[in-house]
Design a protein that fits this description.
Layout (H helix, E strand, L loop, with lengths): L3 E9 L2 E2 L8 E8 L4 E9 L5 H10 L4 E4 L4 H9 L3 E4 L6 H15 L1
Parallel strand pairs: 1-5, 5-6
Antiparallel strand pairs: 1-2, 1-3, 3-4
């Protein structure tokens, strides 16, 4: 069983972005699953590429989950190909707030 979960969040103007394809940065949050808390945060400058290459790039950086504010079936399919789970619907939230909400909801189902 894995001890850590790596969640990537596309950001635009310090908020969770709806646009995975065109954002310039992602935050990668490493979650310590045994403590249900953030262990590390890294800012990733993603190269300007097509969406499929972006998802592959995130996969190469050990991302397990993509959390963003939009809904995009194409992104879901590409992520599934690489074994990346997708969570969407985090509208207009700061990335850390979105992670805190995810962790709170996760802890209620453990």
């Amino acid at each position: 069983m894995k001890n850590n979960l790596n969640i990537a969040i596309p950001v635009e103007k310090q908020k969770v972005s709806t646009d995975v394809e065109h954002c310039a940065n992602f935050f990668r949050f490493e979650i310590d699953l045994s403590k249900n808390r953030v262990a590390c945060v890294t800012l990733l400058d993603i190269p300007p590429t097509a969406i499929k290459e972006r998802i592959f790039w995130l996969s190469e950086r050990c991302v397990d989950m993509l959390l963003f504010s939009g809904i995009n079936p194409t992104i879901n399919e590409i992520c599934a190909e690489k074994g990346i789970a997708v969570l969407s619907g985090f509208l207009e939230e700061k990335p850390l707030r979105a992670i805190e909400r995810y962790l709170k909801n996760r802890s209620t189902v453990l």
